Amino acid sequence: MDVIGIIPARYSSTRFEGKVLADMLGKPVLQHVWERAKQALLLDDLIIACDDERIAAAARGFGAKVALTAKGHLSGTDRICEVVNPLEVKIVVNIQGDEPLIHPTMIDKVAQTLLDDSAISMATIMKAVDEPEIIADTNVVKVVIDKNNFALYFSRAGIPFHASNSQISVPVYFKHIGVYGYTKDFLFIYKNLPVSYLERTECLEQLRVLEEGYKIKVIETKYDTIGVDTPEDLARAIEYLKKESL
Known about the structure:
CATH class: Alpha Beta
Helix content: 25-40%
Distance between the termini: 38 Å
CATH superfamily: Spore Coat Polysaccharide Biosynthesis Protein SpsA, Chain A
Order of helices and strands: EEEHEHEHEHEHEEEHHHEH
Strand content: 15-25%
Number of domains: 1
Structural class: alpha/beta
């Protein structure tokens, strides 16, 4: 198998418990994620990895392949590792269970990047944004990149900071979209990296990769998403879907 997609989904969430099962125009959030991921061209398999029978039952109900994992995992990465450990696969794509507007090309782009270049072990997605409220929103992660589109830093802050004496009239800001691809080998390296200072500071797990000196390729997309972290996010995502269907 070349590429597998895993959707980690947990019921407990500090800001919005049960969000992956929240109703979104007649379907749970998780079903929207799964249906869009199923449209990706490069996935040889797609599995929902969860630790709660309520999620498993809902996922089976809409036809998904489900893996029940241990409840003690501290992150989605740990949950993914449990599922893929016994599998013969080259590339693993981590598809967040709370991203109901994910576009299938995002999955294909991270997978293709890793398939095409063996020197790249991890890839993710970004989108250019210019809305001041999005740039200032600490729930929206921003990323800055080098000239080769490798991540320099991820932050909840509006980076890069636009200094008053800057020679740049309008900076370009990129919103990070939480779709990750890894080689299977690097996934287990990542899992075993120690929790880092910056990760603890920003509560962003991917920062441990940069602090340990590894690189993350960042691929630009023209498609936007709305991650569902709060009930307010869910309302925004529903409105977006309504407009999309017009």
